[in-house]
């Protein structure tokens, strides 16, 4: 297999997108050659059969230049690949899908989002198959869609031996953005503190520029509600630092709405933290007690139940099969099978 991959960023140190570096490594073990076209590149260490081309975001080039570079690379590597895998960005299918169609090159689109548009439908039309992880993704309505594992590196994400799990501790790990509904978590902490319960919440992540105001809003809630002794913030960290964070907390809280499938849910579970989510698309994957309504009272009540050590022990025994089913090795086996 000679594969051309499109992705947002190739950078092993990126807090959000660094996981894809591991995907490329695993794919390259199963391919004759891999060419990667990304919007931006940073630090990476990949096999000799992998070549990375950047459209130039790290050099702050214009969006028009992105398109020029895209077609330049497609011309340069023409004939060097026989399959195309587009990760998350349907724009590449829209820009080059007809070309690949005429050349008889199959295109595989990975898109996992609750919403879509007429452009999404056209990208699906131009794709041979579509992959997603959530049963509530927009793309599940199409017959050519295949549900895939999340692809977590279980060799990296596992309990860290020397780390002590803090009692009554909760962590949230994500980009700081309104869609994550972190304000609900703060309200839930206020409910628990007001009732005399012990709790500490750490929010790990950084906003992109348009969400700086949201971070300021969250910090203002902490001050106004006198939660500074219970809530703390930490800037985003690289993938290799996350296992220590997950391993030091009892609960991992994720309030992203249904229709997506945040990989951090599996990462935290693999490290021994109990996931508590509001995403109902995970109903058949997680124990019922791990799914909450997205209201402060319901979240607070669920956290209180999950602080019970007997509950956590029982849940952890059930989470083993969940994390293994979503592992990177399982994903690679299924992905290679679908690509072939």
From TrEMBL:
Keywords: Transferase. The keyword Transferase applies. GO terms for molecular function: glycosyltransferase activity. CDD domains: GT4_PimA-like. SUPFAM superfamilies: UDP-Glycosyltransferase/glycogen phosphorylase. Residues 164-281 form the Glycosyl transferase family domain. The keyword Transferase applies. This is Glycosyl transferase family 1 domain-containing protein. The lineage of its organism: Bacteria, Candidatus Zambryskiibacteriota.
């Amino acid at each position: 297999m000679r594969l051309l991959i499109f992705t947002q960023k190739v950078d092993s140190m990126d807090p959000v997108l660094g996981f894809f570096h591991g995907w490329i490594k695993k794919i390259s073990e199963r391919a004759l050659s891999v060419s990667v076209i990304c919007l931006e590149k940073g630090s990476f260490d990949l096999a000799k059969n992998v070549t990375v081309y950047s459209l130039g975001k790290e050099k702050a080039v214009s969006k028009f230049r992105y398109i020029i570079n895209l077609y330049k690379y497609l011309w340069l590597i023409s004939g060097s690949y026989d399959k195309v895998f587009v990760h998350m960005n349907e724009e590449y299918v829209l820009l080059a899908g007809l070309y690949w169609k005429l050349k008889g090159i199959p295109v595989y689109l990975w898109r996992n989002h609750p919403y879509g548009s007429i452009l999404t439908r056209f990208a699906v039309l131009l794709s041979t198959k579509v992959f997603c992880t959530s049963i509530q993704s927009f793309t599940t309505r199409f017959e050519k869609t295949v549900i895939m594992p999340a692809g977590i590196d279980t060799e990296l994400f596992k309990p860290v031996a020397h780390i002590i799990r803090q009692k009554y501790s909760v962590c949230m790990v994500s980009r700081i953005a309104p869609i994550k509904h972190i304000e609900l978590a703060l309200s839930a902490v206020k409910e628990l503190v007001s009732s005399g319960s012990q709790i500490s919440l750490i929010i790990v992540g950084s906003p992109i520029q348009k969400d700086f105001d949201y971070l300021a809003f969250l910090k203002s809630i902490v001050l106004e509600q006198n939660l500074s002794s219970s809530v703390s913030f930490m800037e985003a960290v690289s993938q290799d630092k996350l296992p220590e964070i997950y391993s030091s907390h009892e609960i991992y809280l994720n309030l992203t709405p249904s229709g997506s499938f945040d990989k951090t849910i599996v990462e935290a579970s693999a490290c021994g933290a109990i996931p508590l989510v509001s995403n109902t698309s995970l109903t058949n994957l997680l124990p019922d007690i791990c799914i909450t309504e997205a209201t402060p009272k319901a979240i607070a009540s669920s956290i209180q139940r999950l602080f019970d050590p007997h509950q956590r022990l029982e849940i952890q025994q059930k989470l083993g099969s969940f994390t293994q089913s979503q592992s990177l090795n399982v994903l690679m086996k299924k992905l290679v099978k679908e690509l072939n």
